[in-house]
Amino acid sequence: MAKEKQIFFCRECGFESGKWMGQCPGCKSWNTFCEETITVGAKKQSDRRDAVAPTSILEVQTSDETRFSTGLEELNRVLGGGIVNGSLVLVGGDPGIGKSTILLQMCRNLSENGYRVLYVSGEESLSQIKMRAERIGTFTKDMLLLCVNHLEDVEACIKKNPPKVIAIDSIQTMLVEDVPSAPGSVSQVKEVTARLMQIAKQMDIAVFIVGHVTKEGTVAGPRNLEHMVDTVLYFEGDRNAGFRILRAVKNRFGSTNEIGVFEMTKTGLSEVNNPSKVMLDGRPVNTSGSVVVCSMEGTRPILLEIQALVCQTNFNLPRRTTVGLDYNRVNLLLAVLEKRAGMVLAGCDAYVNIAGGFRLDDPAADLGIVAALVSSFKNKPLEEHLVAFGEIGLSGEVRGVSSAEQRVNEARKMGFQTCIIPKSNKENIKTADGIQVIGVSNIREALEYLC
Ligand code: TYD
Ligand code: MG
């Protein structure tokens, strides 16, 4: 006999418990337990077990056309070269960042190429979607809309006439009838995702799910949602600035770190094919504290401007603020500057910013950060057509970075004339016509060239 039971779930990690707890033993976060009703017992014994047998890897058949294009190059790149048949993709991001828009645009392109596409919305009505769609462009009859909240309705629809791609907007508004708790709750989100996973794998349909994010920036619902799906994409960027960056944080079918850059326009999202140009637009010339670095985002080099402001502090404890960079990394570099380059920064506030609302994790930016700090400290502008990159170690050494040649080429393509790079990388650079490449082995050497 099936019966209902009250269970407590952690909203962050999905930890289950019979009683309420203040702190989750799984992820150590506080006050995240919520009560939900689940159905237990009465599971049928399946008699399929005998029929299951392993297959030799040599006998597994793959079809040639396993990927197909979304019609948006930037999205294809982030997905690892296009949509994989039967994959489950989670798209997360802040409200209003453009998740619904990008999926609608993708669906439009796919339907134009003759694929049947089903767009399921639990948030908007048919006419609201149509209004949005009219801004984006014209659609064909292969683009099907469904405004329901019950997953069972979606399943019935799919069974009747299976589409090639399904978009679910959003997972937090979907519910299955077997689970008694409200839509958006941990057990609902988990169950809906598991059912969508089954649909994707069994029927070979690519499924895209929109997920809302929490204040902390992770997809709302249990963290293990990210483990269940094949690919997790995050849409980020400043909502007020026009640029949106789509980042793959997990991808079973391609590399992560890959990014796609978009701009929100009146007619939907448009692709930015040359992000370096956009990121350097409006760069101040002849100003101290501004340096251009080259960061690798997946397989693509992007030039970015790092800005630093170093000024006398009015307090006992100097203030350090970073935007778009790791705070601790900047503190570490300030300490290296004090100890290894003999600069007294203890009495200075330091602010470091990446222009354009970009977030930078590449350690190759270290040399750029240091150069910007020193330039601002000495109030001396750097050469205008200069790019610097390299990782800095605690003893002040400049260490080699990956893909140095690609970075130098990007700098040359964008019209830069000098590149300051790690000495160990310089030896491996074969072609450097039209750009002067200077190899440095430690921070003192670098600062001699810079200012
Ligand atoms: P939306 O895709 O609804 O965001 P999400 O689904 O992530 O919550 O994006 C909505 C924002 O984008 C909204 O502020 C309006 C803006 N927008 C445009 O500027 N141009 C357009 O063509 C569209 C469709 C939306
Ligand atoms: Mg939306």
Task: Please give a quick description of this structure.
The chain is of the alpha/beta class. It contains twelve helices and 23 strands.
Task: Give your account of this protein's structure.
Helix content is 27%, strand content 27%. It has 12 helices and 23 strands. The strands form 6 sheets. A 9-stranded mixed β-sheet has the order 8-7-9-10-6-11-12-13-14. The radius of gyration is 26 Å and the shape is globular. The structure holds thymidine-5'-diphosphate and magnesium ion. The site of magnesium ion has 4 residues, from helix 2.
Brief descriptors of the model:
binds magnesium ion, globular, 4-stranded mixed sheet, 9-stranded mixed sheet, 451 residues, Ribosomal Protein S5, domain 2, alpha/beta, Rossmann fold, binds thymidine-5'-diphosphate
Oligomer: single chain
Largest sheet: 9 strands, mixed
CA-based gyration radius:
26 Å
Total separate domains:
3
The counted number of beta strands is 23
> What structural class do helix, strand and pairing data support?
alpha/beta
Q: Which second-level CATH architecture of the largest domain applies?
A: 3-Layer(aba) Sandwich
User: Counting H and I runs of at least 4 residues, what is the number of helices?
Assistant: 12
Strand order of the largest sheet: 8-7-9-10-6-11-12-13-14
Mean pLDDT: 88
Instruction: Give a list of the ligands.
Output: thymidine-5'-diphosphate, magnesium ion
